[in-house]
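Suppose you are handed a protein chain with no further information: no name, no annotation, nothing but its sequence. What can you learn? This example shows the usual starting point.
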Amino acid sequence: MKKGTRSDKPIVHGSGYRGKNYNLYALAPRLHPHLSVIDGFEGMEGNGPKIGTPVDHRICVVSTDWLAADRVAVELMGIDFARIGYLNYCAQTGLGVADLNRIEIVGESINKHIKPYKLHESIEKQLIWMKPAS
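A reasonable first move is to predict its three-dimensional structure. Written in structure tokens, the prediction is:
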């Protein structure tokens, strides 16, 4: 941040895990890329982004549908898509394709390249978005 400027980061990151998932979903229609390129040559598992463990994955996902790209990347990481709040909200409201049966995969089968990633130690807290608000 430069002197005299303001950051909206606290607003987007506010309200805990439930708020983060909703805010990312709310921003998606306005800020989505027209071409999504996910460089998975080296991934990160565990407590990223600062103290995670590198994963030698050597994959790349490219799509003009950013949600389809994220859906394939989540699958390649061995993560249950149903647990990713903002991506589920985007799928439910038609912001892209999330059904693997409707995504054309060019190249080898996804199944040949799945590497289950260790999740963050706070994953159970992050899943609060799945529970009804109290």
